[in-house]
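Readers of this paper often ask what the protein records in our data store actually look like. Nothing more is needed to write down the fold, since each code stands for a local backbone conformation. Below, we set out a record of this kind in full and without editing:
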Amino acid sequence: MPTALVSLNIAAARPLTIDGREVMSGIVKRGVVGPLEVGAMGLAGDEQADLSVHGGLSKAVYAYPAEHYGFWKTVRAQAKVAAWDELLPPGSMGENLTLQGLLETGVWIGDVLRFADCELAVSEPRFPCFKFNAVMGFGQASKLMVANAWCGFYLAVRVPGTLCAGESFELVPGPREVGITELFRSRVSGGRR
């Protein structure tokens, strides 16, 4: 299956009410067509509210496989959060890049996603937080992400440039020593959350 950038997603940090308290978050992303500038700290117009866990040079861009969206629609319907056919648009996982044709099991630390005008290097898996449960609408969402290791992955900007929704990319293998799924599972089982 060819690899492609299905959706390019950004958000400004804004208040999100969780369990009766207001927290700042940039997790609710919306799709844009582009071209969109990609710099060392991420996509133009995108913000992260808590830089201790999201953002920075090594976590400038977050990617998530489009293939997992059917699962999330189904479990949200089963949890009676939403009807199965309710929209769950790209960006709903908080990702900047909704990718097709590249799952976590095929990604290793140091791999490079080479787009026409920029390069992004895989740096680490994403670990879900309480905000993910809130936007998904049920308290078990993070546990399901952990159980399936459907975490997506962070990217560092290796070559700045621009991105456009719909463009294809090439996966350039890195040293292939540690896989995203392997690292995610080891950190989760080691108590990091």
Notes: The chain has a mean pLDDT of 93. The longest strand covers residues 4-10. The radius of gyration is 16 Å.
